[in-house]
Amino acid sequence: MEISEIVKKQKEFFAAGGTRSMAKRLEILKKLHQAIKNREEQLCEAIQADLGKSATESYMCEVGLTLSELSFQIKHLKKWAKPKRRKTDLANFPGKSFALREPYGCVLIMSPWNYPFLLCMEPLVGAIAAGNCCVLKPSAYSSHTSAAIKELIEEVFPEEYVAVIEGGRAENRALLEERFDYIFFTGGINVGKMVLQKAAVYLTPVTLELGGKSPCIVERTADLKLAATRIAFGKYLNCGQTCVAPDYLLIDKAVKKDFLEHFKEAITQMYGENALHNPDYGKIINEKHFDRLKALIIPEKIVYGGQGNRETLQLAPMVMDHVRESDAIMQEEIFGPILPVIEYETIDEAFEFVQKREKPLAAYLFTRNKTVEKRFLKEFSFGGGCINDTIVHLATSRMGFGGVGNSGMGSYHGWKSFETFTHEKCILKKYRWPDLPIRYQPYASVKDKLVHIFLR
Q1: Predicted confidence band at 372 (pLDDT cuts at 50, 70, 90)?
Q2: Burial class (CB within 10 angstroms; exposed 0-12, middle 13-18, buried 19+) of 295
Q3: Active-site annotation holder among 209, 333, 343, 419
């Protein structure tokens, strides 16, 4: 079926009320949950084929998180969907005020290749819970997972409810020419700008989950061994191909040497002496990105790692020290297992370095100093982050996840997903009696006084 025909069918299905019933929504979410559980092994194999992730990592970071989000939505959906009473002010007495949340209609979800199952399915869960129809566009780069998603969706949903469109740029362009009621995009900043331009034609609301260079600051009072372990985890998970991975490290000059020793030990403990021989260590998505990463490396600045194999698309965890702001690796989001290290002498210097750059999707601080912590929270603008940890702030349905400024707009997870994929429709139900005459002409001095009493 052609893309335009699919969109037309979905709009008709939505208009006929096929997605509105609370019982139907809960039934289909439960069906999706069971179908994912039934296909767990197949899904993990597909993710491994695309990114080399182990079964444990594929479940922990993708399949399991999706199941958890589904369980959370199923548990809370009825409560979220109930009309919410609002206080009626004196000027509108007598009456009743309340808010209803209604689905947008036909939603487009465009997902990336780095977490090809999670970042496709989690927005879908929110869209379906909210009562929408949906067109899914997974990435062509992660073709094995895209095919597995298509099989899963076709088992659970009729095409007029949820449809999967595979393909590359031609399909992306065709989809963006259609008139959707909402667009949810996860990907790079440049493509995000194009999506926003296309959405503007019809004033279509959007959520953009983008990226940027997420900083990680290690202040001199930090627990260096713990910081090293948690930064290594966040940086090299999925071979660094994580939108909220620590992109670069700012570290106090006084503790840099000790930290780097702990950091090298942490990498070795997790991945072995040579990560390329570790069967649980993944790979770069394709040759294009492998070559891009190799071009960012300055060999004389490597203080750990450096091994690579273009045939297997593997690049070992790497640390580059004495990096300068002008180096190529500081000009773009790395999206790979290379950690640039920049030392500073005062915390003011570190904060200034971050603040003069674009607002990142994430930011991380390791410290025991409460004053530094308060400054970090007050002075920096970023999507979300952690104090004394990395990336795990997004692994919960109880907090929203999203960007700000150059790193995106809007958020999702849990309630925020339901909020994102619904419009809040506010209603004032006025009672027929009494009908106070204050607002009607002819105006008089007594009415003027009463208006001033009500509205002040």
Answers
A1: very high
A2: exposed
A3: 209
Crossing angle of helices 40-51 and 22-38, in 10° steps, is 70
Eight-state DSSP code of residue 181 = S
Q: What are the residue ranges of helices labelled H in 90-213? A: 118-129, 143-156, 169-177, 189-201
Q: Please state whether the peptide bond connecting residue 205 to the residue before it is cis, i.e. omega within 30 degrees of 0.
A: no
| Catalytic annotation present for 209 | yes
| Confidence grade of residue 109 (pLDDT, cut at 50, 70, 90) | very high
Element containing residue 40 per DSSP (H, E): helix 40-51
Q: Output the six-digit token pair for 298.
A: 């300055």
DSSP string, 385-431: EEESS-SGGGS-SSS-EE--GGGEE-EESTHHHHHHTEEEEEEEEE-
Count of C-beta atoms within a 10 Å radius of residue 360: 28
Backbone angles phi and psi of 422, in degrees to 5: -130, 155
Q: Can you give the C-alpha Rg of the chain in angstroms? A: 25
Q: How far apart are CA 323 and CA 92, in angstroms?
A: 63
Residues 235/390, Cβ–Cβ less than 8 Å:
yes
* Active-site residue flag, 122: no
pLDDT (tens digit per residue) in 150-183: 999 999 999 999 999 999 999 999 999 999 999 9
| Other beta carbons less than 10 A from residue 441's beta carbon | 7
Treating both helix axes as pointing N-terminal to C-terminal, what angle do 143-156 and 40-51 enclose, rounded to 10 degrees? 160
Which one of 61, 134, 243, 386 is the catalytic residue? Answer: 243
Question: Burial letters for 117-139: b for 16+ Cβ neighbours within 10 Å, e otherwise?
Answer: bbbbbbbbbbbbbbbbbbbbbbb
Helix (H, G, I), strand (E, B) or coil at 27: helix
Contact 159, 175 (CB under 8 A): no
